[in-house]
Automatic annotation (TrEMBL):
Sequence ranges assigned to domain B3/B4 tRNA-binding in this UniProt record: 61-210
GO MF terms, alphabetically ordered: phenylalanine-tRNA ligase activity; RNA binding
Protein name, entry field: B3/B4 tRNA-binding domain-containing protein
Family annotation (Pfam families): B3_4
Domain of life per record: Bacteria
UniProt-listed Gene3D superfamilies: Phenylalanyl-trna Synthetase, Chain B, domain 3
Amino acid sequence: MEIKIEDIVRNAAPDLQVVTIEANVTNHPTTPKLKEEFLALGEEIKRRYTMPDINKRPAIAATRAAYKALGKEPNRYRPSSEALCRRIVKGMELYFISDLVDLINVVSVASGYSIGGFDADKIAGDTLSLGAGREGEDFEAIGRGQLNIACMPVYRDEVGGVGTPTSDNERTKLSDDTRRLLMCINVYGEEMPVDDTVALATRLLEEYCSATDIKVTTYR
């Protein structure tokens, strides 16, 4: 899979790096050990941040700045990393979906980066372009129905949008049947060092999803 970053996004976010991780995986309901790891991270986040601190985390602040530069209001359409951290700091119960989904959430909360997780076999073509959403563009967000992605960074395949920093699309979402993962780590501004983020993601993939043939690529 290749990522092409369009000029409109490059101009709005000149420091953007997209790091992709591709791997063969197995997926299952969230294992107790991963739940424990996620819950422990949640307690650490609650100790480190108050609610006003969350959108000042460097990675989250940079993602919000990209939204604003493209013309999107980030307080109405929060990046997923921000939304997850807010949920944790509010003391709301974490939800668990599957090992693949939840390990991506662990990496996102730990690093501050919004991360797309896609079933690579459901992506049409071998290239994703990262551009800006258009008015009225169809996008069925996971668990949310139609999402207004106008002026939002959006990955598109040959069919249409598959992911934004706010939500991924139902069409290419991860499921129990996913065998090939594409993870897109959106580094609009660095917080956790990229190498450390990749190392964390790789460890979790190998430990919980028996990942093999792991390929890491960075796009700027």
